[in-house]
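This protein record is not my work; I was only asked to verify it. Where you disagree with what is written, explain briefly why. This is what I was given:
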Amino acid sequence: MLLVETRGPQDNRSICALEPSGCTPLLSRASTRAARLGEQLLQDLQSGQCLQLWDDDLGALWACPMDKYIHQRWALVWLACLLFAAVLFLLLLLKKDHVKGWLRLLKEDVYSGAAARGRAALLLYSADDAGFERLVGTLASALCQLPLRVAVDLWSRRELSAQGSLAWFHAQRLQILQEGGVVILLFSPGAVALCQEWLQDGTSSTPGAHRPHDAFAASLSCVLPDFLQGRAPGRYIGAYFEGLLHPDAVPALFRAVPVLALPSQLPDFLRTLQGPGAARPGWLSNRAERVSRALQPALDSCLLPPGTQETGLEMAPEAGDRT
C-alpha cells in the first residue's frame, strides 16, 4: 500500500493511502480497505515497517507491506470452512440411518445410470407362433426396464416393411456393434431348424418362404459367418427358454458364445449383457428376479398344451406401444 505524507507549516502533516478511488486519509470513516486498516498502517509506518520511496520538504512517499493482513483474512475463511465441516459431520452422525439410505439410493442410481449408458442389445428370434412372440415382447420390455436399450423387430414393423428385413438387420447390427453392444440370439425350435438348414445347405431359403417381418431368417446370412470366422465372442450371446427347447438342441457352432437358459440363468444373462462394467451381484440378483417375475406368466402360457384356454395374459404394453 502506497502512503503519501504531506507536510505543512508548523510541522503539520497528513497521511493518505493511494487507492483507485483516490487518496484516502488513514483515519477516515470511508468504506475502503485503507480506511479499515488505517490504524494498523499508521502503526506500521511509525514502527519503521514501511519503506520510504521518496522524500523532500513538502512530503514523502512510503510503501507498506500488506501480506500479513491478507493472511489474516484467509485464516478467517479457513476457520469458517472448518467450522462448517464440523457442523455438517455432526449432523451426519445424528442422522446416519437416513444418510445410509440416501447413499444406498445414490448407488442404485449410479448403477442404473451406468446400465443406461452401457450396452445396447439387438434381440433376434424366430417368430414360431403368436405365443412365442408375446414371450419375446415380454422379455424385451423387461430388459428395457433395467434399463437397457433393446432393438427388436417386433417393435419395428414399419421400418421392416419400408427397408426389408435384411437391410433393417444390417443397419441395427452395425449401429449396436459400433456402440459396443451385443446381439442376443434367442433359440427356439423354429430358430434351430433355420440354423440347421443354413448349416446343411449353405444358402438361405427362397424369398417369401418366411414371413416378411422375420428378421431372424434374414440375419443368418451375416450371423453365421461371424461364428464360422471366429468373430462372435464378445459380440453375441445365446439364450433359450426352459421347457420350450432342450439345451442339446442348440447347434454346436453357437457354443462359441455363452448360451444361457431362461429364467434360471438370468443373473448370468444380465451380467453378460452388461459386459465388463457389470454392476455388483446384489443389484443383478434384484433385477433378475424382476425379469423372472415378468417372464413367468408368458412362459407358462407357451407351455400350455395346444387348445388350452389362456386367461389374464396380454402382450406387454411396451411392445404394443412401439408396434
Notes: Residues 203-213, 311-323 have pLDDT under 50 and may be disordered.
